[in-house]
Amino acid sequence: MAGPPQPLSRSGPSRILRFVIIFLVALIILVGLAVLIIWLTVRPKRLSYTVESAEVHNFDMTDTQLNASFSFGVRAYNPNKRVSVYYDSITATVGFGDQDLSFGVLSPFYQPHKNEQWLNIHLNAQNFLLHDSVSKELALERSAGEMDLDLWIKARIRFKVGVWKSAHRTLRIRCSPVIVYLSKSKTFKKTTCFTEV
Ligand SMILES: *[C@@H]1O[C@H](CO)[C@@H](O)[C@H](O)[C@H]1NC(C)=O
């Protein structure tokens, strides 16, 4: 004859297990709350870029070759209250149609929070070989007195929040079209750029 079943022990391993589970759940909730609070206070906003000026100088072309100097004034604005940005390397490319006309490297810089910086971008094309279709299109736009350029900026950036610094990310900025008037009578219209991090 077996005796009556033993009541489940209220002490020992099962009690420790319960404590561990409660502790882990509490820890997960606390970490979640901390992440939420940090995110709410930092609340990252998109970096903004606008082309505020664009000029083409020494423009000269044949059926196959191009000489030109391009200048762009780009306003870079960091609207964040707590996030600052390291631009560790930056390059700029000016394109027309499906051809890149010139490429250049800009100086690295640090952008604090709520800060505005001006990027003066100068790109030269000399004895540059144009694709057939690009040269035809460029000649047409030239005689019409305005050119639709594309400006691409690519940067390796890091974010800084307090003492924390993020890993490197690639920032891609596309300003298109940047309409440049070859006659001085028309005023330049700002171009807002698209960004992708
Ligand atoms: C571009 O400039 C170079 C050097 O000044 C000159 O030899 C060439 O003829 C120019 N090309 C055009 C298309 O004007």
Automatic annotation (TrEMBL):
<dbReference type="InterPro" id="IPR044839">
    <property type="entry name" value="NDR1-like"/>
</dbReference>
<keyword id="KW-0812">Transmembrane</keyword>
<dbReference type="GO" id="GO:0016020">
    <property type="term" value="C:membrane"/>
</dbReference>
<dbReference type="Pfam" id="PF03168">
    <property type="entry name" value="LEA_2"/>
</dbReference>
<feature type="domain" description="Late embryogenesis abundant protein LEA-2 subgroup">
    <location>
        <begin position="74"/>
        <end position="175"/>
    </location>
</feature>
<feature type="transmembrane region" description="Helical">
    <location>
        <begin position="16"/>
        <end position="40"/>
    </location>
</feature>
<dbReference type="GO" id="GO:0098542">
    <property type="term" value="P:defense response to other organism"/>
</dbReference>
<dbReference type="InterPro" id="IPR004864">
    <property type="entry name" value="LEA_2"/>
</dbReference>
<protein>
    <recommendedName>
        <fullName>Late embryogenesis abundant protein LEA-2 subgroup domain-containing protein</fullName>
    </recommendedName>
</protein>
<keyword id="KW-1133">Transmembrane helix</keyword>
<keyword id="KW-0472">Membrane</keyword>
